[in-house]
Amino acid sequence: MTTITELKHHAGATVTLNGWVYNLRTGKGIVFLILRDGSGLCQCVIAQDQVDEAVFLAAEGLTQESAVSVTGTVVADERSVGGHELHVTGLTVHQIAVDYPITPKEHGVEFLMENRHLWLRSQRQWAVMRIRNEIIWAIHRFFQGRGFVQMDAPIFTGNAVEGTSTLFETDYFDQKAYLTQSGQLYGEAMAMAHGKIYTFGPTFRAEKSKTRRHLTEFWMIEPEMAFHDLPMNMDVAEDMMRFIVTEVLANRPEELKILGRDLSVLRNITKPFPRITYTEAVERLTSEATDRLLTTMEEERKAEKAALEAELPALEKELGGAKKFRKVQIENRIREIRARFEEIEEDFRNIPVWRKSALEKKWGDDLGGSDETLLTMQYDTPIMVWGYPSAIKAFYMKRDPDNDAIALGVDMLAPEGYGEIIGGGQREESLDLLLERIREHELPEEVFGWYLDLRKYGSVPHSGFGLGLERTVAWICGLKHVRETIPFPRMLGRLHP
Ligand code: 4AD
Ligand code: MG
Fold this sequence. Notes:
Blueprint: E1 14-27, E2 30-36, E3 41-47, H1 53-60, E4 67-76, E5 84-95, H2 109-114, H3 116-119, H4 123-144, E6 149-150, E7 156-157, E8 169-172, E9 175-179, H5 184-194, E10 196-204, E11 217-226, H6 230-251, H7 253-258, H8 263-267, E12 275-277, H9 278-285, H10 288-321, H11 324-359, H12 369-376, E13 383-389, E14 399-400, E15 403-414, E16 419-426, H13 431-440, H14 449-456, E17 462-468, H15 469-477
Parallel strand pairs: 3-5, 6-10, 12-13
Antiparallel strand pairs: 1-2, 1-4, 2-3, 4-5, 7-9, 8-9, 10-11, 11-17, 13-15, 14-15, 15-16, 16-17
Helix pairs in contact: 4-6, 4-15, 10-11
C-alpha cells in the first residue's frame, strides 16, 4: 500500500492508492478524479481507451467522498497537485457516497460545525490538524530534549486551581469532584520528585461566554521546574515558542500555504520577544498610539465596507446569466461579502467599547481580551507581560519581595491581535505566606494539605507555565476562532458531534 506523500519515490512504477473521491470531473472519454487518502491529494486520470469498459463505467459513476482503491502508473507532473499524477489502469469501488452534505459551494459555519465529523476531511481543516500535530510533536521534542519528564496530572480533582467561577462539578461516588482547570498543583509535586516535568492533557473551564478564544475543554502543556525563578521561566517559554514556530515553518510549508498564512510575522520568531511589565502595558494601552490604532482600524473597516459594497452590483448583475460553475463562484463570493459585512458591523459596535476599556485602564485592572488584542497589534513578535497586580492573580503566585502589590506572574501574548497563549509565573515557596494566601482567597484549607506539604519538605524556588494548545494553533495557522483548532470543539452551546 502506497500513500500519496510517498509517490515521489515511485515515479514510473505501478502503485495502488486507497482513499476517497475529493473531486471528480468528467469529459469526453476521460475522467479526472482527485483522490484524497489522508496524506495528500493526487489527480488520477482515467482514459476510456486505456482501461476496461467496466472500470471506465465505474469511474463515471463515482461521487464525492466515495471510497475507492485506484491502481495506475505514477507520472511526475509539476502542474498537478502534489507534483505527481496517476495514469489509472484499475479501480475498485468500496462504497458509493450519496449526497455528501459538504459541497464545493460555501457553507455557513454553523452548518459546518454540525457536520464537524465530515468537515474534518476538507482541505483547510486537514491542514490545521496537520499543523496541530506538528506543534504537539515539536513540544514533546523540545521538552524531552531538555531533560523534562512528561507526567500526567489527574482530571478528577477535589479543588479549584484557577478560581471557582469556571469549575465543572461532577458526582464522584456521592462526593463532589471537579474536572481539572490546570494540572499545575500536581505538576509542582512532580517537579519536586523529578526536577523538571511537563504535563500535557485536557483541561476544563465552564466558560459561560462565547468568544473566539474560549473553549470549555482545551489542551494545556504545563512545564514545572524546581530551582527556576521568573526570568529563567520566561527563557524556557521563549525558547519553546521559538522552537515550535521554527519547526512548523520548516516542516509544514504546504499546510501553511493551503491556509494562506502570511508567513512574515511567523518568520520574526528568531527575534527576541520584548519583555514588558504590566505597568508598561497599561501605559501603552492608555497612550496616544492605542488611540491612533483604533482610529486607523475604524477607517480601514469603513474603506473595506465601501469597496465590498461597490463590488456587489456587478456580481448580482452577472448572476442572472451565469453558467453553472461561474454561478456557484458568484454565489460564494456574495455570501463571503455578506459574512464580512456582519463582522465589520460587529467591529463598529466593538471599537468604542475597546477604546473605552483600553484608554481608561487604571493600574490594578485586569487586561481583557480586547486590551490584549490592541497591545499585541503593536508588536510583530510575541511579547511577555510580567509583574501583574497581585490582587488579580492566583493564590499560588509568588509576590515581588520588594513590592507586595506585584505578583511574579507572566503572560505570553501572541502578535497580530491574538493575545494570551501562555500564563505562568513563579510560585510562592514559603509555607506561612502560602497559608495566608489560601485564607485570604477563602479556599478550603483541608483539601490543600498535600500541596502545603510541598512547602514543608524541601521547599525551593520554582516556576512554570501553561501553554494553551488551541490558542497557539489558532495563532500559527492565522485562524479567527479556536473552534477550528481542535477536532471536536467543546464550547458554550456545543456538545455535538
Ligand atoms: O492562564 P491560565 O489560566 O494559567 C493556568 O491555568 C496556570 N495554572 C498554568 C500554569 O502556570 N501551569 O491558562 C493557561 C493558558 C492560557 O494562557 C490560554 O492559552 C489557555 O491556557 N486557556 C484557554 N484556552 C482555550 N480556552 C479557554 N477557556 C482557556 N483558558 C485558558
Ligand atoms: Mg491566564
